[in-house]
């Protein structure tokens, strides 16, 4: 008894002496439920020269009550050189309060009492501090961000001391502090801490006839923190034996499912997991993985059955939308694509807000609904269910937002409208799409052909109609492209093409010449060829426009070029720049490079690379060629 009282005195006399100088409170030994008033004297603190001060405090209790540690502000009233404040009565679970002081206008200016904060412990009726009044202080340092948010860090030596004192005064609370105390020793990193921590783990677990899952978990984490992985794994195995339905077992089986390469065994393992752990937090992610697995294994009928068995909360409707759309694009499993999209639409109506959605769920639901309806409409269209497709597309098309519409969707919408005799109803939206550049060339051709067949119209009127729709957009695009035009001399060249013909710049004088520098090994070059073919086709009847596909930087036998063109019969003229002289003279730094020479023999346009967008490539080259032709006619 004498040693306990001596220890108690040592613990509180020194802090109380410091408190008398700059912080004191009343009553001196507050009990639970009592309001506490305090006086703070900042003269010897970092806030000695500040005048606008406030207090910030947290309540604390046992480790499992750390939700009490929510910072609150207490108003300070100045009285001469001191400040006074009052804390409201605390809840019965509270075992103490910790405070810091700061400049209310400059919150980064703080007094945290050299990292120990200012403490008001709760006492019992006899005046003795209650259990957790000391250890709870350490919990504030280790289990909350209170000190960190004040721009300070805890002292690991002080934290360890607090834990030691708590367990000496109240041995019965050791189960709540042993792991935190040993973790504090690890952070101290004093000489010999490893064996001391190891001995602490072993002695504690040995004192527990049947360690709990939490104790085994804590022990494993402590072993891991000192690098003893075999013992950490051994405790985890004990944890799984004690709690075969616990988180470790769930993680192991979840990982086994993820790593399983045999699709049949993977399905069996998933079904067993879902049966054994129906409420597992790991199940939703596994369900998404299995949904994707059915699709990747082309088990589309199985996918439908699987999705139908899931609750709305377990279904990723965006994944269903993507799958249905891909199936419809590829014209495979079309009835199943239709059903997948329908299932997604039905699920979305009752689906709770997913954790991944941070914004307005109602707005996000509308976006997801349009994605699903788009996939649904395409699946119907590909099955030639035109009436249903047209109705579905009307739910996708937004006449108020044509500038953000998708050109492919616009084209499919108009096709379904044509097939159901609703072309006139769809016409205003499609015209707007053409005007803002959201219509693919094929859609514009379809619109023109339809317009030409209307009573009183001709092909010439249809051409004029389409040109009028595009005129403003074309003018804007040409204005932008003019900023990219250059004006450099076009070096003379004479090359032999794959057919043995001589191709010379002098013979092309007066024409618009498009040079596409490429090589068979260049992926972007080859990827751009369909777009380049379309661009060439637009001017195939124009004798004043010439496309040349100059093979350069090939670095191999010419037969490779012949083989490529034989395998890919593009209608291209292919001059061979075997020495790269023409490429160098035209400042080709990388391939593909497109160069356009005007009728006056000057280089007017140069573009390196391929964006991957064929429509943009075709449109830009077409406009450049048309601009240069217009310049010649002036």
Would you mind describing this structure in some detail?
The protein is of the alpha+beta class. It folds into four domains: 168 residues, Immunoglobulin-like (Sandwich); 52 residues, no CATH class; 208 residues, Serine Threonine Protein Phosphatase 5, Tetratricopeptide repeat, CATH 1.25.40; 146 residues, Glutaredoxin. 52% of the residues lie in helices and 13% in strands. It has 25 helices and 17 strands. An eight-stranded mixed β-sheet has the order 10-17-16-13-14-15-11-12. Strands 3, 4, 7, 8 and 9 form a five-stranded antiparallel β-sheet that branches. α23 links the parallel β14 and β15. α4 runs antiparallel to α5 and α12 packs parallel to α14. The longest helix is centred in the last third of the chain and has 24 residues. The chain is elongated, with a radius of gyration of 39 Å. The N terminus is likely disordered.
CATH architectural category of the largest domain: Alpha Horseshoe
Number of strands: 17
Largest sheet: 8 strands, mixed
Proportion in β-strands? 5-15%
Tally of contiguous helical segments: 25
Principal-axis shape:
elongated
CATH fold annotation of the largest domain: Serine Threonine Protein Phosphatase 5, Tetratricopeptide repeat
Please compute the radius of gyration using only Cα atoms.
39 Å
Estimated structural class? alpha+beta
Low-pLDDT parts are 1-20
Q: Give the terminus-to-terminus CA distance.
A: 111 Å
Roughly what is the average pLDDT, rounded to an integer?
92
The total tally of domains equals: 4
Strand order of the largest sheet: 10-17-16-13-14-15-11-12
What would CATH call the class of the largest domain? Mainly Alpha
Signal peptide: 1-21
Pfam family, one: AhpC-TSA
GO molecular function, one term: isomerase activity
Keywords: Isomerase, Redox-active center, Signal
């Amino acid at each position: 008894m004498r040693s306990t009282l001596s220890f108690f005195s040592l613990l509180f006399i020194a802090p109380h002496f410091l408190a008398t100088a700059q912080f004191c409170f009343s009553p001196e030994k507050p009990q639970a439920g009592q309001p506490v008033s305090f006086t703070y004297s900042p003269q010897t603190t970092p806030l000695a020269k500040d005048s606008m001060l406030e207090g910030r405090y947290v309540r604390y209790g046992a480790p499992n009550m750390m939700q009490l540690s929510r910072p609150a502000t207490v108003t300070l009233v100045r009285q001469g050189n001191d400040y006074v404040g009052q804390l409201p009565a605390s809840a019965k679970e509270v075992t103490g309060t910790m405070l810091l002081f700061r400049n209310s206008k400059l919150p980064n200016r703080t007094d945290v009492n050299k990292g120990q904060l200012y403490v008001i412990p709760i006492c019992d009726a006899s005046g003795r501090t209650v259990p957790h009044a000391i250890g709870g202080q350490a919990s504030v340092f280790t289990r909350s961000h209170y000190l960190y948010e004040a721009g300070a860090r805890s002292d690991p030596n002080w934290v360890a001391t607090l834990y030691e004192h708590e367990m000496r005064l109240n041995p019965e609370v050791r189960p709540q502090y042993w792991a935190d105390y040993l973790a504090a020793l690890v952070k101290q990193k004093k000489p010999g801490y490893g064996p001391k921590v190891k001995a602490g783990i072993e002695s504690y677990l040995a004192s527990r006839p049947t360690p709990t899952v939490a104790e085994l978990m804590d022990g494993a984490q402590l072993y891991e923190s000192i690098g003893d992985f075999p013992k950490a794994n051994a405790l985890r195995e004990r944890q799984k034996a004690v709690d075969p339905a616990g988180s470790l077992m769930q993680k192991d089986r979840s990982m086994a499912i993820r790593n399983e390469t045999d699709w049949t065994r993977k399905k069996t393992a998933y079904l067993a997991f879902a049966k054994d752990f129906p409420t597992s937090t790991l199940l939703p992610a596994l369900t998404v993985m299995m949904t994707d697995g059915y699709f990747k294994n082309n088990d589309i009928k199985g996918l439908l059955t699987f999705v139908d068995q899931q609750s709305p909360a377990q279904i990723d409707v965006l994944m269903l939308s993507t799958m249905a759309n891909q199936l419809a694009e590829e014209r495979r499993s079309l009835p199943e694509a239709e059903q997948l999209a329908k299932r997604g639409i039905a699920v979305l109506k009752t689906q709770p807000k997913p954790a991944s959605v941070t914004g307005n769920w109602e707005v996000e639901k509308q976006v997801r609904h349009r994605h699903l309806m788009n996939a649904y409409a395409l699946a119907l269209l590909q099955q030639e269910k035109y009436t249903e497709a047209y109705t579905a597309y009307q739910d996708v098309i937004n006449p108020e937002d044509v500038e953000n519409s998708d050109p492919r969707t616009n084209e499919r919408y108009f096709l379904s409208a044509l097939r159901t005799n609703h072309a006139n109803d769809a016409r205003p939206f499609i015209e707007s799409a053409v005007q803002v550049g959201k219509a693919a060339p094929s859609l514009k051709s379809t619109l023109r052909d339809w317009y030409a067949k209307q009573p009183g119209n001709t092909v010439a009127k249809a051409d004029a109609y389409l040109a009028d729709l595009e005129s403003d957009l074309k003018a804007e695009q040409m204005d932008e492209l003019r900023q990219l035009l250059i004006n450099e001399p076009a070096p003379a060249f004479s090359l032999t093409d794959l057919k043995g013909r001589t191709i010379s710049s002098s013979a092309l004088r007066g024409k618009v010449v498009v040079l596409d520098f490429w090589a068979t090994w260049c992926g972007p070059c080859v990827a751009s060829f369909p777009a380049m073919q379309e661009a060439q086709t637009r001017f195939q009847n124009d004798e004043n426009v010439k496309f040349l596909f100059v093979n350069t930087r090939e670095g191999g036998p010419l037969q490779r070029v012949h083989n490529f063109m034989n395998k890919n019969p593009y209608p291209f003229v292919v001059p061979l720049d075997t020495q790269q002289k023409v490429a160098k003279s035209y400042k080709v730094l990388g391939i593909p490079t497109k160069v356009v020479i005007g009728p006056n023999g000057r280089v007017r346009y140069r573009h390196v690379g391929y964006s991957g967008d064929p429509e943009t490539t075709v449109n830009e080259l077409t406009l450049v060629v048309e601009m240069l032709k217009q310049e010649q006619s002036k």
